[in-house]
């Protein structure tokens, strides 16, 4: 089995997280809960307590299987995009560094490709800095998906990404942290506007269709105490997030069904899709 354990790192020599960085250790965060599901060490007691409640709600194996299934999809789709010639990637809601980070996969295909990691949890930047210390083609920024301008206009991103050429934007397991009131489809449309034809988005999202409703409710309840709520959506509502893009075959499927690899982790808890922007707006 793949070892997903994160590389643990303390970013500053004095052991602090760096100036102005507010690492919330009083409330669970999605990035650290997910790290725990993947067997990582970059999480605190509040995160482990929340993660254990999610495990109790849905079953211990399902949580880590769903997280690993998601990472395997990411690995396949990123390689597919890089092999198709995409050489600029924005990984929105990147999470803590783990096994098989996007730049490691992409740069196996194209060592000159540019990758920008984005997350609103500052712990990701703190750890990412250590991981990327000697990689001139990759950077990490702290910004929030719910304000697309803070990502798209970020000077560090603009140094690496040229929006006049195709870009891939990864929204992997992040939109279920955006509420309906925050208008997920409107946010994706804001990203789409800036993309050149030939650009792609890849997205995975937790889904209600095959999940028992009492378990869904228990998971949502756990995240009410976290820094972001968790919003399951139906397959139909997930498909609607791709408006304005052309879905790539096989369309919206469970992650393990998208151009399956040799790995054999299958859950019914999420859907995935990849889509292309064909025309200039
Ligand atoms: C479940 S993890 C997924 C990590 C990675 N994309 C993957 O699939 O392996 C979700 C990540 O999205 C980040 N996130 C949640 N809401 C966000 C927002 N509004 N803007 C940016 N990042 C966000 C969390 O901090 C967390 O690192």
Name the shape in a single word.
globular
CATH topology: Rossmann fold
Strand order of the largest sheet: 3-2-1-4-5-7-6
The helix-and-strand class reads: alpha/beta
Q: Give the CATH level 1 class.
A: Alpha Beta
CATH-level-4 superfamily name: Vaccinia Virus protein VP39
Distance between the termini: 44 Å
Overview of this protein structure:
The protein is of the alpha/beta class and 281 residues long. It has one domain (30-276): Rossmann fold (3-Layer(aba) Sandwich), CATH 3.40.50. Helix content is 37%, strand content 13%. It is built from ten helices and seven strands. A seven-stranded mixed sheet has the order 3-2-1-4-5-7-6. Helix 1 (30-37) crosses helix 2 (45-58), helix 2 (45-58) packs across helix 3 and helix 2 runs antiparallel to helix 9. It is globular. The N and C termini lie far apart (44 Å). 46% of the residues are buried. Bound molecules: S-adenosylmethionine.
Q: What would the keywords be for this entry?
A:
281 residues; alpha/beta; Rossmann fold; seven-stranded mixed beta sheet; 10 helices; 7 strands; 13% strand; disordered N terminus; binds S-adenosylmethionine
Q: Concise description?
A:
This protein has 281 residues and is an alpha/beta fold. The protein has a single domain, classed as 3-Layer(aba) Sandwich (Rossmann fold), CATH 3.40.50.150. The protein is built from ten helices and seven strands.
């Amino acid at each position: 089995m793949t070892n997903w354990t994160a590389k643990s790192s303390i970013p500053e020599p004095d052991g602090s997280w760096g100036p102005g960085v507010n690492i919330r250790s009083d409330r669970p965060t999605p990035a650290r809960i997910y790290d725990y599901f993947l067997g990582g060490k970059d999480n605190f007691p509040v995160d482990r307590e929340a993660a254990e409640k999610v495990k109790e709600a849905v079953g211990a194996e399902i949580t880590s299987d769903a997280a690993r299934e998601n990472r395997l999809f990411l690995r396949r789709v990123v390689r597919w995009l890089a092999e198709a010639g995409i050489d600029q990637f924005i990984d929105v809601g990147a999470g803590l560094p783990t096994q098989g980070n996007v730049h490691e996969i992409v740069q196996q295909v194209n060592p000159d490709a540019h990758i920008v990691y984005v997350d609103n949890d500052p712990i990701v930047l703190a750890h990412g800095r250590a991981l990327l210390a000697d990689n001139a083609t990759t950077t990490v920024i702290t910004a929030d998906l719910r304000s697309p301008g803070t990502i798209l206009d970020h000077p560090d991103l603009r140094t690496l990404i040229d929006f006049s050429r195709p870009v891939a934007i990864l929204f992997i397991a992040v939109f279920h942290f955006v509420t309906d009131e925050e208008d997920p489809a409107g946010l994706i449309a804001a990203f789409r506007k800036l993309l050149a034809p030939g650009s792609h988005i890849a997205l995975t999202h937790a889904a209600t269709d095959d999940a028992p409703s009492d378990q869904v409710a228990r998971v949502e309840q756990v995240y009410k105490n976290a820094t972001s709520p968790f919003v399951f959506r139906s397959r139909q509502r997930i498909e609607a997030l791709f408006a304005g893009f052309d879905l790539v075959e096989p369309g919206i499927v469970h992650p393990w069904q998208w151009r399956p690899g040799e790995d054999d982790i299958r859950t019914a808890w999420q859907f995935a899709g990849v889509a292309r922007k064909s025309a200039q707006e």
